Amino acid sequence: SRSACPRHSRNLRHHTPPNMASAVATCAVPVVRARQIPRPGARKTSRFSQIKPRPRLVPLRAIEAPANLERIRITTPWEDAQITLKEEFGMTEAEISAAGTLTDEDLSGAYETMQLCRDFENECNQAYMAGKIRGFMHLDNGQESIPALLHNAIRKTDLKHSYYRDHCHALACGVDAGAVMAELFGRDGGTCRGTGGSMHIYDMDTNFQGGWALVAEQLPYAVGAARSIRLDKHLNTGEAEDRIAIVFVGEGGAQNGRMAECLNAAAKENLPILFLVIDNGRAINTFTKDVAQNQEVFNQGKHYGIPGVLADGQNVQDTLRIGRAAINHVRTKGPAILQVHTFRFNGHSPADPEHERNRKDEKKWARAECDPIKIFETSSDVTRVDVGGCTARAKEEVRKALEFANASPPPPPTLAAFLEYPDLSGAVDYSQREPEMGLAKAAEVTAATVNAETLVALNGRIDALRAMASDAKGISIGDAVNLAILEEMVRDPTVVAHAEDLQAGSSYNIPANTQQAFGTLRAADEIIDEGHFIGKALGEAMNGYRPIVELMNANFGIYGMAELSSAGNTYATTGGQFKMPMTVIGAGGTAPNQSLGAEHSQPFHAYIMGIPGLKICTASKPQEAYGLAKSMIRDNGPGVLLLPVKLMKTKGPLTVDNFLPLHKATLQHVASDESIANGKAVTVLTYLHGTKESEDAIAILKTEGFDVDLIELTCLKPFDKATIETSLKRTHKLAILDESTRSGGVGATMSALVSETLFDELDAPVLRLCMEDAPVPYATEMEKEMVKRASDLVIGVKSMC
Length: 801
What we know:
Number of strands: 24
Low-confidence stretches: 1-57
Mean pLDDT: 90
Strand order of the largest sheet: 13-12-14-15-17-16-22
Helix content: 25-40%
Shape: elongated
Number of helices: 27
């Protein structure tokens, strides 16, 4: 019988409906104590010893539905939920009573919010059909109990990270309805001035931080936001002590590996974050049960000691009570999961043909039997609400929103280009940029948060590194960057660090001594997934911090391509609201005789060239590595600093306290006047290991009367036309020694830009000495054919002259 359930199932594993169309199924389900809150004076036990082998059984009820439907409604009565809250959340009777007591004001606010969301989304649908809203749009009809909860229990100071179905979340969190509608219309009066659109609603005033369009990408960003709350408390720089972060994710998105990583991070640091799982049972055309072995997302946290609870999203009163209890737990104790079981009345988007099996039958039934607004209107609590007044106010707010959106002008066409970087090229003297809190306050905070003896030892280490820099032997690239990081972290307490193996200095000493000096909050050792901690850094950067991410090997950044892309996009996509002062540093590139094989020899620098908003720099010597790192940390936009993996221990001179521009290439060698006069000079563009290879080639070429203007591309992006143009006016010939592939490589981009903008200065075609379009092999004999070096440049320069 379909009305029977396995003993240890909550009927969410497959959402199997009852067998009889008119029967109400009741199923015994376990409540396992995931984390017991110890009583004062109680003996401490391990996290695993708190899990009880014999769970209590609580009835989970399913509502009658036609037999052919794939999804049914469940109920989660408040009296049953209280057992979970006591057993798993450790809540007291007083806490449960506070969460469960709904005033007339609570109910009126919830009902009006639901009506506002329903009317707003209906008008969005009409505007979409009329062509006023374009692109993708995802409506929230049927899920209005969730914004009702937000309106009731989430505060302005809380940090909110939503996903692409974000309109109603924004409205419930206090974002102006007119600004949201204008954003959907692509108008200058929109929340993001028309740069974001439907899937990207941001509002700095209400701390509404997205609107993120890639499924589950918002999870680590929200964890980073939660870390910023912990950091604020640690530094005593924050606002209300009980602020929380809240992140919305679908039950499908919660199957993403990012969820497990973020639950681990939240538990490890006891972060104030609520994972709100919106469970509507389907993707675009796939039922979640078809791909997920277990849909009990609220139980995912048990492995990490994070409690979870399930709520029937069609019953707004139970959603409010259960949700408020979970939110209170996060405010006072630590992370939690709230899974809300809902029905989505519309397709994934207006373009969705809704081909899922029995989907149209389900939608018809759900609209009649599972509408949270109708269900509330048939409850006894409706008498406590001025239904007419709430409905009228909601309709009027939507009317005004449409009026505002229609009257708002389009944004200026030049806005997108203007918003590429928070700090325009050449506009900032980084040596003069103070911490946001001011130098005096920053020094005070550092003194208050770093042990006095530790600070003395740290300054001693900094002095020792500075002494290396002035010594005749020089300082290594790794130590030069480590010096820059330590100086900036002492100077500005909002500078934080993330890396694998951080406490041991990673591979090249770049983050050495940071955790020992500043602790695990400001210097975090990370799990082996760069996307995870790049994502956390993004969330921190949106909330007043300047994170540094060290990649150990730059190619590991491939794991974080989505996060890097969003970091580059965020300032522009938010209409210039959220800066992104994030620095990513990694040793990479492909050196001759590197013998690392294909995966460690990839041109990561070429892969990220197409990401808008990133400033991408390289350094082959300690002087440039230090000066670029210092400037990049103080820049208000995202930057990537790439270093030569095989030269990290190479020593050279360094002038301390230097700040290099992030938009300029560096002229490392000037061709002799004689070689210019004889037509035997060539401009060479290169970077990373290519700089040393070029210097070796120059020594050979000069013995035969040839010479080179050697330009190190210390800035890969933006393009430094001026420096290259000055050299080409002398040599009129260009060769590029490139550590990336022929197709889509850095050299391809530079060659195209020179040909497009400086064609008249060229007396010959650009010569590209690059890797061929094949994986870099391990064996030296094959590798020599793939990776260009000094000998290839010597031949190339001679051939051009």
